[in-house]
């Protein structure tokens, strides 16, 4: 009997020790390995699709070449000696915030060299700082890469992936396509060069006949960084795979607009006009050099730094028949608009204070205003596209206002 009691005592002690050990392991180890869902941050997204305002307008702020480094400790370039001591990346941040306050844009387009890779040991941190004004504004925004963004700790695919995941960003790594299986899920298009090729549709105002249709397309292209051609270094260029996608998208969009559409279940049917398109990329195409001998609006102060490869970008854009303007960066001391075969090519000017410039030539940014026409008390297609520049001077001067396209001029 004593042996039996002893066995039970040992067994009981063993189970007590076992349960105590399990409890300690659970409380000290397992709980630390579990995910704390309270700290998970979800991306804040803007209301989509992009849409014209009730007054029939849609305003875009183009921000070119911020060249952001590490913030306060990154010094300005090409400013006056009196400005230099207290000038840093924060001047760029203040300028972009001021632009947003003054212009009240509906959309922000960043056209590359958003960060200056060689000036930062942490690309992600610099990106968040560079895009801080856009994120804090709560406005939808999109970006492409330039030739300097990838020179730090992230490659171009990683950069575009991070940008696409930031708050209020509508950027895409590359175009989405429907799965061939017929399922509703979409997948990234494969076989296209670069990262940051995509289109954004802007619909008509709520309550208009075109509230469910795109009346303006904004396409973004990756113009690359550097390349070697026949043993010589040159800048990147837009490749044939990108142009094939763009032409295909444009044709599909125009075919869709050419069909008869029913509005609100009404027996009335109409054909919607092809949606005009605006393009955004960083490195200029070689043909822009021709504008040196033509009339331009703005300043042509710097040689066009482009690829030695003529990849047929201009020919493709002209063939699409709906491209009205293209907005670029890269050459900081150029801020002009010039017309090539019916398409306006406009530099954004130099927004970033860590980017090279000219002493005495103030930083600037471009604004694009798209206006709808009104017919029978309802907004219809795009009527006019105009642009101007806003300077970072004491008066926030507005200069070089011009009309890029007017529907009436084509009639």
TrEMBL record:
The chain crosses the membrane at residues 12-35. It comes from the Eukaryota. Keywords: Membrane, Transmembrane, Transmembrane helix. Gene3D superfamilies: 3.60.21.10. Residues 58-333 form the Calcineurin-like phosphoesterase domain. SUPFAM superfamilies: Metallo-dependent phosphatases. CDD domains: MPP_Dcr2. Pfam families: Metallophos. This is Probable inactive purple acid phosphatase 28 isoform X1. The lineage of its organism: Eukaryota, Viridiplantae, Streptophyta, Embryophyta, Tracheophyta. The gene is LOC110777484.
């Amino acid at each position: 009997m004593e042996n039996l009691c002893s066995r039970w005592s040992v067994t009981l002690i063993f189970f007590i020790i076992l349960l105590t050990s399990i409890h300690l392991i659970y409380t000290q180890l397992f709980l630390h390995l579990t995910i704390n869902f309270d700290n998970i941050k979800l991306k804040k997204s803007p209301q989509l699709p992009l849409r014209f305002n009730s007054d029939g307008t849609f305003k875009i702020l183009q921000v070119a070449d911020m060249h952001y480094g590490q913030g306060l400790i990154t010094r300005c370039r090409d400013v006056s000696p009196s400005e230099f001591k207290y000038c840093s990346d924060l001047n760029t941040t203040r300028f972009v915030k001021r632009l947003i306050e003054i212009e009240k844009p509906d959309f922000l387009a960043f056209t590359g060299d958003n960060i200056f890779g060689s000036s930062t040991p942490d690309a992600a941190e610099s990106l968040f700082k560079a895009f801080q004004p856009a994120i804090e504004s709560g406005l939808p925004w999109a970006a492409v890469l330039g030739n300097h963004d990838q020179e730090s700790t992230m490659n171009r695919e990683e950069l575009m992936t991070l940008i696409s995941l930031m708050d209020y960003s509508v950027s895409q790594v590359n175009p989405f396509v429907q799965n061939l299986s017929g399922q509703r899920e979409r997948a990234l298009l494969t076989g296209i060069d670069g990262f940051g090729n995509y289109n954004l549709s802007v619909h008509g105002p709520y309550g208009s006949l075109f509230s469910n249709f795109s009346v303006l397309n904004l396409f973004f292209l990756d113009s690359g960084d550097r390349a070697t051609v026949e043993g010589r270094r040159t800048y990147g260029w837009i490749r044939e795979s990108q142009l094939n996608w763009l032409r295909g998208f444009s044709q599909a969009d125009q075919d869709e607009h050419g069909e008869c559409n029913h509005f609100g279940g009404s027996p009335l049917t109409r054909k919607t006009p092809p949606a005009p398109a605006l393009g955004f990329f960083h490195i200029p195409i070689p043909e822009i050099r021709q504008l040196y001998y033509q009339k331009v609006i703005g300043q042509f102060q710097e040689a066009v730094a482009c690829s030695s490869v003529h990849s047929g970008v201009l020919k493709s854009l002209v063939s699409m028949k709906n491209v009205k303007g293209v907005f670029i960066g890269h050459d900081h001391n150029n801020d002009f608009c010039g017309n090539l075969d019916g398409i306006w090519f406009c530099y954004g000017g130099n927004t970033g204070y860590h980017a090279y410039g000219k002493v005495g030539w103030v930083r600037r940014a471009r604004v694009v205003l798209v206006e709808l026409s009104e017919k029978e008390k309802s907004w219809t297609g795009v009527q006019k596209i105009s642009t101007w520049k806003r300077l970072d001077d004491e008066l926030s001067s507005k200069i070089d206002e011009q009309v890029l396209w007017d529907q009436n001029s084509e009639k």
